[in-house]
Write a structure and sequence with these properties.
By secondary structure, the protein is α/β, with parallel strands linked by helices. The protein contains 4 helices and 7 strands, in the order E-H-E-H-E-E-H-E-E-E-H. It has helices spanning 11-22, 41-51, 92-96, 140-149; strands spanning 4-8, 30-34, 66-69, 75-79, 101-105, 118-127, 130-138. The two termini are 18 Å apart. Bound molecules: adenosine-5'-diphosphate and magnesium ion (MG).
């Protein structure tokens, strides 16, 4: 399996990396974020939003599950931590098939509903400010995207 790794030594670096990735994103792209609480999923999403030229502050959509932001492309930010069960259908498909970029924190919790083709990013807390980011693309689009990111 193709996978790519990157170490981040502080939150700004994670944000900058995500902002760089954002510039390569297309309408309909899906990014699944995995990692424990505090791993950096929301930090990554904030950087992505900055790269999409979103002016509003992006924070964890704890109670809303889905938040939508306007930028170069729309950003659909989901945090599905509180979805009651994996089959609870909150109309995710509309977002996945929409014109924006979808970012899903705790994506495995809605695995059955996630499109198979996506970029999954696993975040691991190594130390206080050190994170390992592992990028796993599924499908052609995301393999090409990873090649572009890591070239
Ligand atoms: N290298 C790093 N990358 C991302 N976040 C980091 C890093 N170093 C420290 N942090 C801190 O870790 C915390 C990550 O929180 P957050 O992004 O909300 O995580 P999650 O959404 O995965 O629960 C933030 O306080 C952030 O400042
Ligand atoms: Mg979060």
């Amino acid at each position: 399996m193709n996978q790519f790794e990157r170490i981040s030594t502080n939150s700004e670096e994670t944000g900058q990396f995500a902002a760089g990735l954002a510039e390569l994103l297309h309408p309909g792209d899906i990014i699944a974020l995995e990692g424990d609480l505090g791993a950096g999923k929301t930090t990554f999403t904030k950087g992505l939003a900055k790269g999409l030229e979103i002016k509003k502050n992006v924070n964890s959509p704890t109670f809303t599950i889905i938040k939508e932001y306007k930028g170069r492309l729309p950003l659909y930010h989901m945090d599905v931590y509180r979805v009651a069960d994996s089959y609870e259908d909150l109309g995710f498909d509309e977002y996945f098939n929409g014109d924006g970029v979808t970012v899903v924190e705790w994506a495995h919790l809605i695995d059955e509903q996630l499109p198979e083709e996506r970029l999954t990013i696993f975040l691991y807390r190594l130390e206080e400010d050190r994170r390992k980011m592992v990028f796993v693309p599924t499908g052609n689009r995301y393999e090409e995207l990873c090649k572009e990111i890591f070239k």
